[in-house]
Amino acid sequence: MAVINNGIEFVKDTPYRGKDVWYFIQSTDPKVAPVGSPAILPAHQESGDTSIEGDSLDEQTKMGRIIAASTNEDSIELTTYMVPGDKAHEIIIDAKHEGRQVKVWRVIVDPRLAVVEDDHKAYPAMFGYGVVDSADISDEDSFSEIDFTLNIIGKLADKNEDGTPGTFPLSDEQVAMLDQLYAFERPGEKAGEFADGSATSTTTTTTTTSHA
Predict the structure, then answer these.
(1) Alpha carbons 83 and 185: distance in angstroms, whole number
(2) Rounded CA gap, 117 and 171, in Å?
(3) Which helix (H) or strand (E) holds 124?
(4) Which of 74, 147, 132, 134 shows the shortest CA–CA distance to 101?
(5) Residue 192: count of CB within 10 angstroms of its CB
(6) pLDDT score at 73
(7) Are 198 and 85 in contact (CB under 8 A)?
(8) What whole-number distance in Å separates Cα of residue 206 and Cα of residue 179?
(9) Are the beta carbons of 101 and 131 closer than 8 angstroms?
(10) 8 A C-beta contact, residue 137 and residue 145
């Protein structure tokens, strides 16, 4: 009998950080988000959890155990602080009350994974249509926060219809804005304090993703 040794395969590198994974959402209400609308970045994201789950058929027979894949039950849970002007919690609450779906993207904003697309970069992403299972608002001594769970219809998609990896476009300027609250300024350039109480926004280029 021949001895088989096909070697091993491994990677030694720094893992990407949880703080570099951002979740974006978008309403499916055409009045709120018509074609060409930007994705919404929920403000001050605390944590995001993506669950790739599903039941299996599991039966015992006289010839042994039989296991087969059955269902996909992917879900995304996101916790964020509630900030005036942030459309995210309005989208989630409206979707829950009105029975609407929500589009959601999980994006790994790590420069090592970026690909160049024309005048911007794109980052690996998963996409899905979610149904709001619950939205819990907590009002305690600290900041008000909202925790919501999206049950994904079908399964999260990470590839386009042609099999290429799904990506999410972001410019270098937008990536820099994700990492800081404000930019450097010189004395006298602006008056007053940091814009506490005013909403700021930026838009991305059109995102093309596949359906699950």
Answers:
(1) 24
(2) 10
(3) strand 120-138
(4) 132
(5) 6
(6) 93
(7) yes
(8) 22
(9) yes
(10) yes
Give residue-wise pLDDT tens across range 167-185: 999 999 899 888 777 777 8
Mapped onto helix, strand or coil, the DSSP state of residue 18 is helix
Q: Which amino acid is at 200?
A: T
* Contact (Cβ atoms closer than 8 angstroms) between residue 77 and residue 148: yes
CA dist 126 and 67 (Å) reads: 27
Q: Within 13 A of 171's CA, how many CA atoms are on the CB side? A: 9
Q: Is the pTM of this model over 0.90?
A: no
Tell me the Cα Rg of the chain. 21
* pLDDT of 182: 75
Of 22, 35, 51, 58, which is closest to residue 133 (Cα–Cα)? 51
Report the distance separating Cα 91 and Cα 32, nearest Å.
9
What phi and psi values does residue 151 have, to the nearest 5 degrees? -85, 120
Structural domains of the chain sorted by starting position, each given as residue range(s) with its CATH number in brackets: 18-54+67-179 (2.30.110)
- Residue ranges with strand state E in 32-138: 45-51, 56-61, 64-69, 75-81, 101-108, 115-117, 120-138
Residues of the chain scoring pLDDT < 50: 198, 204, 206-212
Burial grade of 136 (CB within 10 A; 0-12, 13-18, 19 or more): exposed
Identify the pLDDT of residue 169: 95
Q: What angle do CA 89, 95, 101 make, to 5 degrees?
A: 120
DSSP 193: S
In the block, which residue shows the tokens 């999410």? 168
CA 206 – CA 209 distance, rounded (Å) = 10
